[in-house]
Amino acid sequence: MLAMTNKLHNRIDESLIALRRILRTTELYARDLAQAAGVTPAQLRVMQIVDEVDNATPKMLANQMGVSQATVTVLVDKLVMRGIVERVPSELDRRQVNVVISDFGQNALKEAPDALQQRYVHAFAELADWEQAQLVSSLERVADMLDAKNTDVSPVLTAGELRAGKNSE
Amino acid sequence: MLAMTNKLHNRIDESLIALRRILRTTELYARDLAQAAGVTPAQLRVMQIVDEVDNATPKMLANQMGVSQATVTVLVDKLVMRGIVERVPSELDRRQVNVVISDFGQNALKEAPDALQQRYVHAFAELADWEQAQLVSSLERVADMLDAKNTDVSPVLTAGELRAGKNSE
DNA sequence: GTTGAATACTTCAATATATAAAGCAATATA
DNA sequence: TATATTGCTTTATATATTGAAGTATTCAAC
Question: Do B86 and B55 lie in a common domain?
Fold first, then answer.
């Protein structure tokens, strides 16, 4: 029975290690990508979101990026100064400002190809059909596990709880 | 055949969306966790690495975090000022500095329980055995796909290449 | 429709993050 | 023993980030 709890423990460790590798690789890569585009990482994220979403607003950017509106104002300032995005007053609500990407900004995004994403897409396409399906399912499950709002998890998971995992098979 | 390429395309989209959700959730959470520990996110990462690794050095921290040594010096300065870590001259190589966490710093880490990780561990423990195994396998595969150093991927993946994925079943 | 609260955004002041370049010791190499 | 390299810090500078305060607009309640 000790071996079984160890199995759970090992799997948790392995999955956390893999997760950290994913986080580290993508974060490190984001810097290179931003540098290639000639902007800072935070500015690049604004560009990416503004490029994808129609009618992006500072508030929406702040929420999406997890920073304050004040921060977004500064980031947008920098990008406006360089002609990468533009501020367009909203027609519907004059309190709002729509941040839209310029042709120049869109070009800058195209010119800095996201090699990491391309590498992923390439590798993914070469997987067997069932592997692809499994990967999507697993990633979505992990995202759900992390994202879950409805968490009635006890604030601290004790060592006892961890070792008494319910899948000791 | 069009349906098949669409299947690949959809799966790629789904997996990228799930990946972004994972990245976003963990990043947003890192800020809350740092705040709970009374430090900034960058400082917390130093604390976490120093806590896990024996004989951490500024160079090693810089590599691990993907920032310059100068940045690490500043971060360590802050943490030293607050008694969270200490600089200990290396015995082996007197150019090196070992950054070690203090009891106080270790306590600060314990006092700010990583709810996100706990949530993950809890949810993981409740999965069926085969699901756990699949998750670990998938995460490791994704980490490998992103991490791959041996990348002979063409610099830009064209739309044609994407649509002509090899798993159109 | 006038008042008052809420919303969206910006400005300001202060701190944190990040870097390159230059400098200093200690080590390695020749 | 010169000389180069390595590990780290200092300095100067730019960017990021925030809370708090301020402006303008909208909404809600009379």
Answer: yes
